[in-house]
Amino acid sequence: MRKFTTSLLLTALASVMSISAVAAAELNVIKPGTLIIGTTGSSPPSTMFNDSAELAGLDIDLSKKIAADLGLKAEFVTLDWSGMLAGIQAGRFDMVASSVARTPERVASADFLVSEAYLANGVGAAKVKDNTTINSWADLCGKAIGIVKGANQIVTARKQFGDACFSNVKEYPGWTELLLDLQNKRIDALVGNYITPAYLISSTNRPLALLPQSLDVSGNALVIRKQDPELRTKIDALLAQYKKDGSLQQITEKWVGKGLSLDQLKK
């Protein structure tokens, strides 16, 4: 009886592995058997380096799970955000997983494909805690603002408050440099996605504070090479499965805690 049960288990495992192999073979990935993923490694809690100098974060865990469920090996390529979308257009990687906002402009782009949202995020702003002149978004008008180069959240701020209000903007290669300049009062505030500064401020006890209002609730998504629409289809199916079986919630709570609800996203 034990031999029969073992045989059944081995047969089932072989069947699953065979299905994964077939699914992987249908994809137009750059490197056979591998899902090459672009990420910055500098946008906590989505993508960062841990104390052992290994990539970690919500996007890293999600990407590894997606790769495994597609029957592929995950391989990460790190570079600054400013070169990320150009990198996927140039065929450097199959997918970008780096706290990418799912905007209408990106969804409509002819240069790459965008998945469904897997995380609700917002447009946030932070200031030095002892700065009593900034208490709302309106107070940022005319101030020196820092952003991560290539980030799109400043566009949302300008749409709501006008270009003139946010004309004094300085770009930084990553969050480390941006937060350091804010802490040293070289800029008055930063504008970016909501969860990254929230995580960095709370986890490192920096003398900074988030403004209580988030301008907009949007989704984070994965970006896929336009040459592989089947990969986007399979990733969307997996994301739907993860939402249903609770595995996406597990990954989110591990890195973000109780996040914003995906139900808040505009359809």
Structure keywords:
D-Maltodextrin-Binding Protein, domain 2, globular, ten-stranded mixed sheet, 267 residues, alpha/beta, 13 strands, 2 domains, 24% strand
Fold and architecture overview:
With 267 residues, this protein is α/β, with parallel strands linked by helices. The protein folds into two domains: 2-120 and 219-258, Periplasmic binding protein-like II (D-Maltodextrin-Binding Protein, domain 2); 121-217, Periplasmic binding protein-like II (D-Maltodextrin-Binding Protein, domain 2, 3-Layer(aba) Sandwich). It is built from nine helices and 13 strands. It has helices at 2-25, 58-69, 84-89, 104-107, 153-161, 175-183, 195-204, 229-245, 247-255, and strands at residues 34-39, 42-43, 47-49, 55-56, 73-78, 95-101, 112-114, 119-128, 145-148, 169-172, 189-193, 208-210, 217-225. Strand 3 (47-49) and strand 4 form a beta hairpin. The chain is globular, with a radius of gyration of 20 Å. The protein starts with a helix and ends in a 12-residue tail after the last helix. Mean pLDDT is 88; it is low at 8-22.
Shape: globular
What are the low-pLDDT stretches, counting only 5+ consecutive residues below 50? 8-22
Q: Structural class of the helix and strand makeup?
A: alpha/beta
Secondary-structure arrangement, i.e. CATH architecture of the largest domain? 3-Layer(aba) Sandwich
Q: How many domain units?
A: 2
**What is the CA-based Rg, rounded?**
20 Å
Total helical elements: 9
CATH top-level class of the largest domain: Alpha Beta
Annotation, overall tally of beta strands? 13
The CATH topology name of the largest domain reads D-Maltodextrin-Binding Protein, domain 2
Strand count, sense and closure of the main sheet?
10 strands, mixed
